[in-house]
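Recall that a protein's primary structure is simply its ordered list of amino acids. Everything else, from secondary elements to tertiary packing, is in principle encoded there. The following example makes that idea concrete.
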Amino acid sequence: VLVAPDPTSHLRFPGFPLKPYLSVFIPGWTGHPVYNGHWSETADFVRKWNRANDFFRQGTDDTFRESLLRDHDIRYILYPNALAEGIPPYPNGAPVPDPAAPYLPENWRGSSAPSYLKVLYENAEITVYEFVPNER
């Protein structure tokens, strides 16, 4: 599972001790391994963190995205919908600093997702995509 970095999840999900990285919960909740999990439990964490940020960054080429998914046998992508328009501000309205801005365009939601992604589940908070490789 590839999980979008979510630096403000603790604002929407108070009480989670391992904020802001939802990826640390996925193995326990689903039984699936994550590509970019807890920093001390993920081999080569810094490289994977950077590649995950690249995947979710607006303007990244879909060839890179599809290659990352294929090369690492990633089957699912978890994307917090609140990130579609950038990082939500703090409750007081102050911006959350994030120079990488790793967020997909809003038009990725629903049927506008790239052809290699199939929406498996969607609610107000998250979208779960399944990677369906394009034929070569």
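The first helix runs from residue 9 to 12. The CA atoms of residues 57 and 102 lie 4 Å apart.
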